[in-house]
């Protein structure tokens, strides 16, 4: 029986993602097995949505093929998922969510609703209705400024503003370097969540013009509560000594403590939960992988793929 590609695995479910490191992964029958110092562990990849491979991981070609055959997305990441380097190909082969995201970002009125929703999520929806985007952006600026000031007061770390030059890394003060490292870690885990459910990292709503624009949108939901206070604490603890490594490890532990990955996906869906007018909805998605993709027509809508239309019809 063909798979129903409309039913995507739920990454927020306990068994839908798995992080491994310092191990070897190879094929075992129609699944994969993980070998590390504790022995061998079989992984039922048919029910797994995302396999995150951290440092020290090697994987055989046959194991990658097995993951792909079972619709399990493979992602190469930093320790604890705090960086994101590359991805494989998951079960999100149909484009329903990507098209929805594209519709929302391409229609100015729909995009504005998503932007408003994202700003309200940062304030737990406790802000007045009918504010302009300029007013919301101003409130967000004040909130971030207050968050930096509060973290500085709590830790005693002086704060003169966000200042970072990627070409002169060592010139930045410790807390600015810590913030850059922590945010990079946050972008990694947000990237994994976004691609695992079929959205594009590049189609941002508040941010635009970068391959990670949507990652920046989602990561901003968590900076005030996670990476900003964490970075100030790291800078206050031992100053410059091993700062970058300490921040990465602190992010790994904090993300695990908060079970952050399982929170990001519902937050993404909540941010994009904007009603699309019925005449813009396109929901004719093929469930059969081997059937050629349909072709779009401005008058007739989607037409069968794999057809020669040289007669003009």
From TrEMBL:
UniProt enzyme class: hydrolase
Reported cofactor(s): Mg(2+); Mn(2+)
One Pfam family of this chain: Cas_Cas1
EC number, UniProt record: 3.1.-.-
Keywords noted in UniProt: Antiviral defense, DNA-binding, Endonuclease, Hydrolase, Magnesium, Manganese, Metal-binding, Nuclease
A single GO BP: maintenance of CRISPR repeat elements
Family: Belongs to the CRISPR-associated endonuclease Cas1 family.
Subunit structure and binding partners: Homodimer, forms a heterotetramer with a Cas2 homodimer.
Role this protein plays: CRISPR (clustered regularly interspaced short palindromic repeat), is an adaptive immune system that provides protection against mobile genetic elements (viruses, transposable elements and conjugative plasmids). CRISPR clusters contain spacers, sequences complementary to antecedent mobile elements, and target invading nucleic acids. CRISPR clusters are transcribed and processed into CRISPR RNA (crRNA). Acts as a dsDNA endonuclease. Involved in the integration of spacer DNA into the CRISPR cassette.
Protein name: CRISPR-associated endonuclease Cas1
